[in-house]
Amino acid sequence: MLNFSYRNPVKVIFGSGSCAQITKEVPSGSRVLITYGGGSIKRNGTFDEVKAALSNHEVFEFGGIEPNPSVETLLQALNVIKQEQINYILAVGGGSVIDGSKFLAAIALEENDPIEVLRTRGRSIRRALPLGVVVTLAATGSETNSAAVVTELSTHTKTGFFSPHIYPQFAVMDPTKTLTLPTRQVSNGVVDAFVHVMEQYLTYPVNGKIQDRFAEGILLTLIEDGPKALSEPDNIEVRANLMWAASQALNGLIGAGVPQDWATHMLGHELTALHGIDHAQTLAIVLPAMMEDQRVTKREKLLQYAERVWQIQDGSDDKRIDSAIELTRAFFEQLGVPTHLSAYGVGPEHIDALVAQLEAHGMVKLGERQAVTPDVSRRIYEACL
Fold it and tell me: Which CA distances in Å does 215 have to 246, 252, 337, 360?
């Protein structure tokens, strides 16, 4: 096992009706900005619950944060923070709203160019506004980690950044809030969580037994309950397990002391930036091709994954790896998430631009061994067609 330092300061408040607990978590007298996305929280009653819990606070709101939140939109929210002297942010939504709110928290007290946060990938962050979260979508796990991704529309650039200053102070996780989600968002959430685990699990063995077993348990839960969320849309126990699985997938625990990959995410980001494909859809496209392309360097963990997750024990090593990759692809397709670029209108003529974007963003040595060069990325994109 590799050396590591692990800390997670986020207070999780889990369960039905937990929005009422916000009253105790946001300091009295705070000037609170509620951030949200397209407005579904107003239609399903979540916004009213949150406002009721903040009845003794001064409350302001900023909606319209997009999937793949844009810097341009977030800078509009920054104006509200400055004008209204906001001193607390409450993000109500999924990963995009949370990530965008983390960016706002990071730049609200900055005197320098806000883009510096992205250029330094968070290293320039010295302080941030306090942030709380109400989760309405089980997917990214952003509610319990110190990372975020935002998009600069002007340059088609998706950039991740990290800082201990942007951990949410608390995360309200009420699985009933996910019951009204469109099927596409539910499916995307399962895929997103699944690939988050794979980025930390499918590398090379370092005898991290606890991390591996935890990761496998999350994968098995997603495989078991992901399809049930579609066939049993009112099953609150299924939604609760998916919500907790998504959080555990990226709260830092299973990635502590083990090598991590993240090449699938980097290739996926360019598909979103250039073609507007949902983040989770890009992961479903890239991961099977990545597994196939990197099957030699990932051989030991692929065989472990085949046996422990998919219970594949018969046949040669190569046959078992083939089956594991096929079952992974079939799982995504079962969830209604296509796994080939052709399904999204992306063809061979688009590959050059995708690789050029990777190069422009410095993504030229990706993966746990830094072996995914632009030539390898091109090969993987072509395999995704």
Answer: 11, 11, 22, 33
CB of 57 within 8 A of CB of 22?
A: no
Q: What is the mean pLDDT of residues 38-65?
A: 94
- Report yes or no: 22 and 47 within 8 Å, Cβ to Cβ: no
**Domain locations in the chain?**
11-177, 190-384
Four-point Cα dihedral 278, 64, 104, 168, nearest 10? -70
Q: Which CATH superfamily is domain 190-384 in?
A: Dehydroquinate synthase-like - alpha domain (1.20.1090.10)
- Token representation of residue 137: 């979508």
Q: Is the pLDDT of residue 336 over 90?
A: yes
Beta bridge partners of 31: 58
Q: How far apart are CA 364 and CA 375, in angstroms?
A: 9
Q: Which CATH number does 11-177 carry?
A: 3.40.50.1970
Report yes or no: 169 and 10 within 8 Å, Cβ to Cβ: yes
Partners of 34 in the beta sheet? Answer: 61, 90
What digits encode the pLDDT tens for the residues 261-284?
A: 999 999 999 999 999 999 999 999
Buried b / exposed e along 212-227 (16+ C-beta atoms within 10 A): bebbbbbbebbbebbb
- What is the strand order of the sheet 31-35 is part of? 11-14, 170-173, 131-135, 88-93, 31-35, 58-62
What are the two backbone dihedrals, phi and then psi, of residue 208, each rounded to the nearest 5 degrees? Answer: -85, 75
Q: How many CA atoms lie within 13 A of 10 on its CB side?
A: 31
Residue 111 has pLDDT above 90, yes or no: no
* pLDDT, tens digit (0-9, with 9 covering 90-100), for 164-192: 999 999 999 999 999 999 999 999 999 99
Q: In a 10 Å sphere around its CB, with 0-12 CB exposed, 13-18 middle and 19+ buried, how is residue 274 labelled?
A: middle
Amino acid at 204: Y
CA–CA dist 55, 281 (Å, integer): 39
With contact defined as beta carbons under 8 Å apart, do 163 and 106 qualify?
yes
